[in-house]
Task: inverse folding
């Protein structure tokens, strides 16, 4: 048994020792311990160093609000975590913990030199010091500060754990399973509501776990808890322990993080480490309780200085004495109970220093019974001790004057400055708070949410009050949902009621420059820093916070905010609400990034859409590129070909023989109904009325602003049915736009839209031998050039599959697009590969497709257009139906700026040196020698090596480009200027004869 | 979380699927041709003669039938004298079934809607792991899911992760 | 994540099934060619940017796929009412921003 463990006390299992290491040294703790309680059982208070001054620090709390005892934990490769709070890390076999922010060791830290230099590091130090010279910022200050800053080290290996996510729905969510939360859950569940009860702790009970002496309905507190846990189970209440409600969002939507494996000795296969519950509740009961507030005095940060409630928890819940000689300093009655519990456990408690002049008589006499001296109306002006507190100096305060001090020897100092209701979640949805001057704290005011607050979280104190308040809240929640609910009262014996007052900084007679009274432990913000910030002009707490960094540490000011506010208000001579309260934001406690990501990591990061031919491409060495959500084969390298070589080969094959291409990702929309042609006329620039069934047309879609949004070939399948194709990335957008107009502008039209993108697999055959490959496989259709000319569509059978066959060309060669039901896509592809083997059929990818279309000057929407390009700019004015009176975007085409001269027009560019390939996106200028910034007249939109032309080609938009054929422009690049000539956009087969073979 | 419940996930064979669109005035006539009383409210289903209709929107029904019924369906609809659209989407989606205890837990990993409130016998289009899906609740712990073919591997992979999680029992 | 009542499905469902679609009651002119440049500009680009109850369009994209209208308070982010496309904006007495 370790030195500070008290046999027979606490909820730890004395029969189950647990081995762990801290800074390389082996220790044993007990099942049920936290890392902090186990270390304290060995008398280890020193667990870390502060952020700025590297001061030695020990735990001040026993909970998730801990600012000091942050350690690194690990359980194997990738499973390391910085800034784990030792106060909540449950002990497990083989736990490896390391202290942080110290070198070389925790007890001797070279960085502690900062502490000696602390007069230099005043509030706003960084703003004042690192101002100039300006170029020192990125060369010196930034790297140096970066290296010195931060607490733990971020893991460098990929996290091998799984993180889960689950949606949940419940009638009543109760946050906090302390006495009021348990009472609320029971009242709601007994009334018949479905209830979820969540608590960040390992078991239900909250403060009762630290107060076993209380009796409820005649049972000792812990027996009552056991019975209630069983009853909650029987009532079907979903109990989520080790689960922190991190955020409260609109309409009772909460994020809760459940920690599943960090406490386990062995992780079950496939088990997630944490789970994010996304929970919607009809009613929420917030029973989060209150956090104890430290007192601010010189030397209040030495290891061994701890909140009184924490010491009580270590004693009663973990059976650990945090010292052998405890002095208490308090402004609240609650610390008396801690003192009594410690004294009753055999720990010396020589004195309680109370800042209040009047002591409740029953507490005074209880103290007398235990021979505890009560120093009422006293302040604390100093502590001593290097790595652990050794004494405290108490001084009487009379009429505002601080008298002569008296040094009291101790090895731990238990502090209580009152209790702060936890209103974080309440505040997340913009609820308002009101200032309670008497209690010296904020209380909940108004909220738009369907919620109830109960217990200490709304400023109540004592078990009887909290239990009945919880029951009433739970009953009210159930009642609001239509259940007949009752709040039954409970009899509480040996209740621990109390009141208190609050302070900013405790009064002292010492020179302010010699006082180091900490407000924010982790960020080393002292009372002096806050006063300095005020004297330097900060008036709002938001400014004080940013200037001093108070409340900006990993605990987000849970202990420090109200003390900082009180000190700032004192310095300003005003009240705390005048200075304001910083905004509470999620998450309530630090949360693992991966828990937010959930399942969406690695390959599952985002949806990856695959075509029916994806498997074939994968087996045949495709190099992929993402196109929207799709992955598409970019090229199919053979041997040790690089991309240029593969694309060159694929392009030549299409121009000389036949290539095969997976075009399945093209968006497809079925437009059916008697008004189909009318609808198409209104949506697209083109005229559709006279397009005969069996024929196709290139369609151009504009936004209402007149700019090109999408394009694609549209086939008329019947009088009342069009097969519309869209770009790959535009499919969903185009359908949405069409539905928008149809549903909200023209609901009278009898036409319906259906996405058929994924119903069809599409294989494109292109090249002079395309027909030779295809013809033998086609049944029910004559595909000769005369019978099935360019821009035809028909239904037939291809390789035995029902097909919609299009004759069109995006390469400039004879081309077909064969649509078959998706399940047959791969079989069709393989049949064509077999049929084409003798013709040298060559699969090509998106890169070759891009080159081939660029040689023909065909645009790719989104690459050659950027949302500010009109049909006229592209030279596509011919797509506009000449007699049309209206279509989407038509009116905008006559807006002054769209008809003005000087618009950028789509043209070709040929570099002076054909071996030079321009950079896509590069800017174009007329005079490369002009002063900076140059006047840019356009930019390169597409650029490739053309196998057919044996040189580079580019497409670009250039001011008045079409009037400037043959003129020279310049593309200044970091490596030097590139000269190019403006050329027509069609580089290959300008008459288009090859597609019409 | 209680006992470990791991549902079964199985691919379903292809079915003939039609997206049927018709205005309120034509609902009766088109339904009669199909031999179904096309339900009026979103989420309701009707069954008969091996055919099933699920109302997905105020003018939209998903018709399901045996593949061998495709030609007969087309003939039946061809004879209807009311404006409507019937588009073959048989290959747009693939279907699978999740059944057994734990079904709703598996769905809750990616579906923000409270699937427990889709009564057995009803259905809905909703979102699952970021993808649009049609869910039919066949029984307390049995659903069929139709999902676009290209995203099915992504969603199935996430479901496998989910099954592993359920097997781990945490 | 908001809850939104779809007037076509008559169900209150999670926001993830829906997509926002801009301000409501901005009707496309029946004959755009008769609008002046200024009128057309206003139709295209000028929106109310309301603080408080704001009539806007949503689409139940992962549901019944219908566009509909909603009045949402841009201060509280509450959806105060939803109604079918084409219906007039409802009167919501006492639903002004607090």
Result:
């Amino acid at each position: 048994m370790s030195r500070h463990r008290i046999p027979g006390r606490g909820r730890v299992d004395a029969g189950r020792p647990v081995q762990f290491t801290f800074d390389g040294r082996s220790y044993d703790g007990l099942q049920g311990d936290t890392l902090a309680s186990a270390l304290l059982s060995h008398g280890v208070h020193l667990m870390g160093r502060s952020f700025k001054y590297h001061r030695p620090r020990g735990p001040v709390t026993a909970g998730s609000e801990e600012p000091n005892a942050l350690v690194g934990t690990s359980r194997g490769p990738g499973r390391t975590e910085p800034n784990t709070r030792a106060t909540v890390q449950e002990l497990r076999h083989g736990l490896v913990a390391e202290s942080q922010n110290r070198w070389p060791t925790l007890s001797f830290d070279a960085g502690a030199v900062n502490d000696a230099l602390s007069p230099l590091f005043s509030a706003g130090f960084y703003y004042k010091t690192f101002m100039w010279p300006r170029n020192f910022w990125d060369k010196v200050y930034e790297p140096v500060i970066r290296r010195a800053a931060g607490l733990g080290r971020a893991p460098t290996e990929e996290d091998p754990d799984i993180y889960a996510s689950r949606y949940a729905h419940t009638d009543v969510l109760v946050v906090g399973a302390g006495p009021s939360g348990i009472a609320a859950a029971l009242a709601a569940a007994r009334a018949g509501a479905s209830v979820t009860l969540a608590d960040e702790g390992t078991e239900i009970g909250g403060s009762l776990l630290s107060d076993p002496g209380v009796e409820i309905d005649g049972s000792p507190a812990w027996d009552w808890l056991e019975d209630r846990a069983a009853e909650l189970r029987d009532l079907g209440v979903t109990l989520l322990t080790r689960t922190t409600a991190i955020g409260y969002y609109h309409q009772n939507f909460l994020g809760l993080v459940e920690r599943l494996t960090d406490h386990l000795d062995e992780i079950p296969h496939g088990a997630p480490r944490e789970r994010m519950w996304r929970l919607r509740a009809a009613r929420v009961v917030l029973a989060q309780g209150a956090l104890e507030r430290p007192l601010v005095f010189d030397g209040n940060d030495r290891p061994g200085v701890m909140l009184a409630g924490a010491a009580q928890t270590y004693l009663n819940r973990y059976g650990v004495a945090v010292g052998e000689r405890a002095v208490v300093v308090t402004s609240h009655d609650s610390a008396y109970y801690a003192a009594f519990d410690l004294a009753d456990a055999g720990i010396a408690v020589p004195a309680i220093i109370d800042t209040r002049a009047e002591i409740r008589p029953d507490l005074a006499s209880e103290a007398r019974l235990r021979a505890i001296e009560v120093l009422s109306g006293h302040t604390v002006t100093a502590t001593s001790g290097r790595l652990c507190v050794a004494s405290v100096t108490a001084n009487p305060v009379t009429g505002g004057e601080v008298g002569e001090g008296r040094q009291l020897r101790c090895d731990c100092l238990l502090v209580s400055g009152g209790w702060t209701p936890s209103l974080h979640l309440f505040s997340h949805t913009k609820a308002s708070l009101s200032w309670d001057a008497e209690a010296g704290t904020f209380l909940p005011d108004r909220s738009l949410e369907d919620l109830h607050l109960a217990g200490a979280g709304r400023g109540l104190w004592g078990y009887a009050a909290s239990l009945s308040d919880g029951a009433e809240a739970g009953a009210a929640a159930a009642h609001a949902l239509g259940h007949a609910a009752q709040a039954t009262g409970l009899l509480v014996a040996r209740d621990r009621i109390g009141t208190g007052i609050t302070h900013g900084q405790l009064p002292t007679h010492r020179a302010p420059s010699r006082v180091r009274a900490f407000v924010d432990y982790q960020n080393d913000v002292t009372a002096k820093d806050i006063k300095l910030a005020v004297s330097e002009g900060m008036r709002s707490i938001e400014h004080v916070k940013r200037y001093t960094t108070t409340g900006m540490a990993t605990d987000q000011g849970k202990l420090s905010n109200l003390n900082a506010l009180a000190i700032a208000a004192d310095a300003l001579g005003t009240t705390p609400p005048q200075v304001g309260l910083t905004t509470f934001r999620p998450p309530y406690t630090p949360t693992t990034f991966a828990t937010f990501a959930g399942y969406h990591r690695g390959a599952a990061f985002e949806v990856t859409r695959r075509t029916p031919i994806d498997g074939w491409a994968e087996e045949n060495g495709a190099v992929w590129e993402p196109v929207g959500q799709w992955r598409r084969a970019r090229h199919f390298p053979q041997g040790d070909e690089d991309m240029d070589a593969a694309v060159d080969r694929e392009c030549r094959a299409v121009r000389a023989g036949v290539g095969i291409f997976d075009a399945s990702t093209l968006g497809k929309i079925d437009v059916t109904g008697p008004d189909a042609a009318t609808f198409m006329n209104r949506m697209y620039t083109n005229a559709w009325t006279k397009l005969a069934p069996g024929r196709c047309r290139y369609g151009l879609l504009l936004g209402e602003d007149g700019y090109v949004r999408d394009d694609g070939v549209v086939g008329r399948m019947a009088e009342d049915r069009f097969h519309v194709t869209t770009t790959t990335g535009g499919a969903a957008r185009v359908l949405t736009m069409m539905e928008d107009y149809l549903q909200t502008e023209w609901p009278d039209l009898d036409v319906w839209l259906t996405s058929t993108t994924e119903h069809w697999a599409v294989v494109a055959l292109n090249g002079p031998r395309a027909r030779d490959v295809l013809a033998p496989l086609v049944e029910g259709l004559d595909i000769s050039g005369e019978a099935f000319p360019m821009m035809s569509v028909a239904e037939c059978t291809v390789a035995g599959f029902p097909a919609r066959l299009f004759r069109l060309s995006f390469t400039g060669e004879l081309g077909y697009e064969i649509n078959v039901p998706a399940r047959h896509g791969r079989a069709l592809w393989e049949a064509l590969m077999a049929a084409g083997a003798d013709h040298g059929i060559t699969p090509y990818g998106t890169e070759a497709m891009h080159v081939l279309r660029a040689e023909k000057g065909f645009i790719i929407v989104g690459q050659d257009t950027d949302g500010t390009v009109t049909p006229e700019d592209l030279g596509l004015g011919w797509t506009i139906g000449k007699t049309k009176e209206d279509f989407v975007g038509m009116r905008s085409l006559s807006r002054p700026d769209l008809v003005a001269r000087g618009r950028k027009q789509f043209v070709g560019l040929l570099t002076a040196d054909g071996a030079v390939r321009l950079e896509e996106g590069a800017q174009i200028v007329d005079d490369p020698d002009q002063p900076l910034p140059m006047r840019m007249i356009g930019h390169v939109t597409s650029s490739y090596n053309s196998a057919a032309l044996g040189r580079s080609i580019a497409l670009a938009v250039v001011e008045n480009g079409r009037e400037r054929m043959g003129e020279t422009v310049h593309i200044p690049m970091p490596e030097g200027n590139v000269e190019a000539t403006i050329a027509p956009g069609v580089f290959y087969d300008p008459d288009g004869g090859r597609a019409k073979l | 979380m209680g006992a470990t419940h791991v549902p079964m996930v199985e691919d379903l064979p292809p079915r003939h699927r039609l997206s049927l669109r018709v205005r309120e005035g034509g609902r009766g006539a088109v339904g009669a041709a199909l031999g179904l009383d096309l339900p009026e409210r979103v989420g309701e289903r009707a069954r008969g003669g091996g055919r099933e209709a699920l109302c997905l929107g105020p003018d939209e029904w998903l018709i399901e039938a045996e593949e061998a019924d495709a030609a007969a369906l087309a003939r039946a609809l061809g004879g209807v004298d009311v404006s409507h659209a019937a588009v073959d989407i048989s290959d747009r989606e693939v279907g699978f079934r999740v059944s057994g205890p734990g079904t709703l837990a598996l769905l809750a990993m990616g579906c923000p809607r409270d699937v427990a409130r889709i009564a057995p016998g009803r259905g809905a289009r909703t979102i699952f792991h970021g993808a649009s899906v049609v869910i039919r609740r066949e029984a307390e712990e049995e659903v069929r899911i139709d999902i676009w073919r290209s995203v099915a591997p992504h969603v199935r992979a996430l479901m496998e992760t989910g099954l592993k999680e359920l097997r781990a029992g945490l | 994540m908001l809850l939104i009542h779809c007037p076509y499905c008559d169900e209150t469902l999670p926001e993830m099934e829906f997509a926002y679609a801009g301000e409501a009651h901005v009707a496309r002119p029946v004959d755009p060619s008769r609008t002046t440049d200024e009128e057309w500009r206003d139709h295209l680009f000028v929106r109310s940017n309301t603080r408080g109850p704001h009539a806007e369009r949503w689409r139940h994209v992962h549901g019944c796929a219908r566009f509909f209208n909603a009045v949402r308070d841009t201060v509280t982010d509450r959806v105060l009412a939803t109604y079918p496309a084409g219906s007039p904006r409802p009167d919501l007495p006492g639903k002004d921003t607090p």
Q: What stands out?
A: Chain B has a mean pLDDT of 96. DSSP finds four helices and ten strands in chain B.
